[in-house]
Amino acid sequence: MTESAPPAPAAGGGARPIVLGVSFKLYLDVDSTVEWAKTVAEAVRDHPAVKGGRVRLFVLPSLPAIPGVVDALQGTGVGVGAQDLFWEDRGAFTGAVSGADLRTVGCSYAEIGHAERRALFGEDDVILGRKLVAALRNGLTPVLCVGETVKSDPQTAARETAAELEAVTRDLPASDGGHDLIVAYEPRWAIGQAEAADPDYAGTVIAGLRQVLESDERIGSSSILYGGSAQPGTLSALRETADGLFLGRFAHDPRRFGLVLDEALALRDPQLRTG
Ligand SMILES: O=C(CO)COP(=O)(O)O
């Protein structure tokens, strides 16, 4: 990890948009996912905080649900993305998903390196680095997941996670103005649990990741999200350090997602609070 300027203000800090992402993994079927998108579309369509970019939202459905979700969220400002992509765009790659095609069907995000992709599909830093380049080549904002496997002390976790980020971004080419990147800090031991990681622990790791990103001239704008059993209350607890949340199960109920959205609005723009 390299030293750099003090971290920019995070969620509670005022200037940057709060970013909320939701992954459906393989939890919901296509119809339920599209139903969720229709409900959320109604809730956010005309909301000034979302329309004005103070809160940035994205959703990552399973692949077959993407067209229906893109349709349901049309005109709402909520971005849609895939939970994975392949590193090549065309060729003899049976079963692979092209970033170019994701773009064609309306995606603007691609998740890379979720803990489940590493653990169940054998993806390593080299593979993930190629996928990162493929996402950027196709104009997809990468949602790059990093996180230590086992709970340790926050400083050790910060070093381990920063090293992971540096390894995956090693072959990232330079670009005019820098790449737009979302990093999701997801401690693997906190995924699928009842509670999120302790805010001080997560905050220490996020501060370390921010130093890595801010000292990398290839990165333009970046946001660091916390993921791992995130739920109503988590965003406020992390307001000094995280730029937002990457949500799983606790956002699959639109009402609970609405609570997190209200929390984001209250942090960013208290007078726009809906509830
Ligand atoms: O892995 C996650 C999001 O990608 C988090 O999932 P949970 O919030 O369900 O633990």
Outline of the structure:
The chain is α/β, with parallel strands linked by helices. The protein has helices at 30-44, 48-51, 66-72, 99-104, 115-121, 125-137, 154-168, 199-214, 234-237, 254-268, and strands spanning 18-23, 55-60, 79-82, 109-112, 141-146, 179-185, 219-227, 244-247.
Notes on the protein architecture:
- There is one protein chain.
- This protein has 275 residues and is an alpha/beta fold.
- It has one domain: Aldolase class I (TIM Barrel), CATH 3.20.20.
- 37% of the residues lie in helices and 17% in strands.
- It contains ten helices and eight strands.
- Strands 1-2-3-4-5-6-7-8 form an eight-stranded parallel beta barrel, surrounded by five helices.
- Helix 7 packs parallel to helix 8.
- The radius of gyration is 17 Å and the shape is globular.
- The N and C termini lie far apart (41 Å).
- The model is unreliable at 1-8 (pLDDT under 50).
- The structure holds 1,3-dihydroxyacetonephosphate.
- 1,3-dihydroxyacetonephosphate is lined by residues 23, 114, 186, 191-192, 227-230, 246-250.
Which terms summarize this structure?
binds 1,3-dihydroxyacetonephosphate; globular; EC 5.3.1.1; alpha/beta; cytoplasm; 10 helices; 275 residues; TIM Barrel; isomerase activity
Show the helix and strand layout.
Blueprint lengths: L17 E6 L6 H15 L3 H4 L3 E6 L5 H7 L6 E4 L16 H6 L4 E4 L2 H7 L3 H13 L3 E6 L7 H15 L10 E7 L13 H16 L4 E9 L6 H4 L6 E4 L6 H15 L7
Parallel strand pairs: 1-2, 1-8, 2-3, 3-4, 4-5, 5-6, 6-7, 7-8
